[in-house]
C-alpha cells in the first residue's frame, strides 16, 4: 500500500502542474489582449458595423428583418471570429513564445486549448453579450433573441476551436488571412446552418431541443479533436518555418 503513495503523489503533482500551466497561458493571453486593445475591439466593431449596415444596404422592412435577422447576426459573428483568428498564434510566433510553449513538459494540446479558450472569452463571449441589443434592433422577438444568444453561446466556441486549426496551419505563410478563410469557412457551414435553423424553429413555435443537441454534439466533438489537430498543425508549421 505504501508503494503506491509516491505514484499517487506524482500523478497529483503532474495534474496540478498541467492545470497551472493552462491557467498561466490563459491569463497571459488575456493580459496581452488588453495591452493591444485594437485587436480586442476590432471584432466587436466589425460585428456591429455589419449588422447595422445590412438593413441599409438590403431592406429596412420589419418583416424582412424579422425573417433574416438571425442569419445576419450569425454570419456577422462568424466573420468577426474569423477576423480575429489570425492573431491567435501570430504574436507568440513572432516573439518566440510559441517555441517556448512547445518545449514545455505539459502536453501542447492542453496549452493550445487554454489559448483557444482565452480567444473565445475575448472574442466570442462579447459577441454573445452584444447580440440582444442588435437583435432588438433587427426587430427580433424576445424568444428568438434568447434562442439566438443560446446558439451563439454554444456555437462560437466551436468557431474558435475549428479556427485554431486553420490558424495553426497557415502560421508563417504569406496571405495567411486568405488561406485561413478558404480552409475554415467550409467547416463553419454546418454550425451556421444549425444555428440559424434553431432560431427559425423557435420563431415558428417548434421544438428546438434537437437542434441544440446537435450543436452541443458539435461542441463536444470540437473540444475533443480540435486541440490535438491544432497542436499537430503547430508542430508542422514551426518545423517548416
Automatic annotation (TrEMBL):
<dbReference type="InterPro" id="IPR003544">
    <property type="entry name" value="Cyt_c_biogenesis_CcmB"/>
</dbReference>
<feature type="transmembrane region" description="Helical">
    <location>
        <begin position="40"/>
        <end position="58"/>
    </location>
</feature>
<feature type="transmembrane region" description="Helical">
    <location>
        <begin position="70"/>
        <end position="89"/>
    </location>
</feature>
<dbReference type="InterPro" id="IPR026031">
    <property type="entry name" value="Cyt_c_CcmB_bac"/>
</dbReference>
<keyword id="KW-0997">Cell inner membrane</keyword>
<keyword id="KW-0813">Transport</keyword>
<feature type="transmembrane region" description="Helical">
    <location>
        <begin position="109"/>
        <end position="133"/>
    </location>
</feature>
<dbReference type="GO" id="GO:1903607">
    <property type="term" value="P:cytochrome c biosynthetic process"/>
</dbReference>
<feature type="transmembrane region" description="Helical">
    <location>
        <begin position="178"/>
        <end position="203"/>
    </location>
</feature>
<keyword id="KW-0201">Cytochrome c-type biogenesis</keyword>
<keyword id="KW-1133">Transmembrane helix</keyword>
<dbReference type="Pfam" id="PF03379">
    <property type="entry name" value="CcmB"/>
</dbReference>
<comment type="similarity">
    <text>Belongs to the CcmB/CycW/HelB family.</text>
</comment>
<keyword id="KW-0472">Membrane</keyword>
<keyword id="KW-1003">Cell membrane</keyword>
<feature type="transmembrane region" description="Helical">
    <location>
        <begin position="145"/>
        <end position="171"/>
    </location>
</feature>
<keyword id="KW-0812">Transmembrane</keyword>
<comment type="function">
    <text>Required for the export of heme to the periplasm for the biogenesis of c-type cytochromes.</text>
</comment>
<dbReference type="GO" id="GO:0015232">
    <property type="term" value="F:heme transmembrane transporter activity"/>
</dbReference>
<dbReference type="GO" id="GO:0005886">
    <property type="term" value="C:plasma membrane"/>
</dbReference>
<protein>
    <recommendedName>
        <fullName>Heme exporter protein B</fullName>
    </recommendedName>
</protein>
<dbReference type="GO" id="GO:0017004">
    <property type="term" value="P:cytochrome complex assembly"/>
</dbReference>
<feature type="transmembrane region" description="Helical">
    <location>
        <begin position="209"/>
        <end position="234"/>
    </location>
</feature>
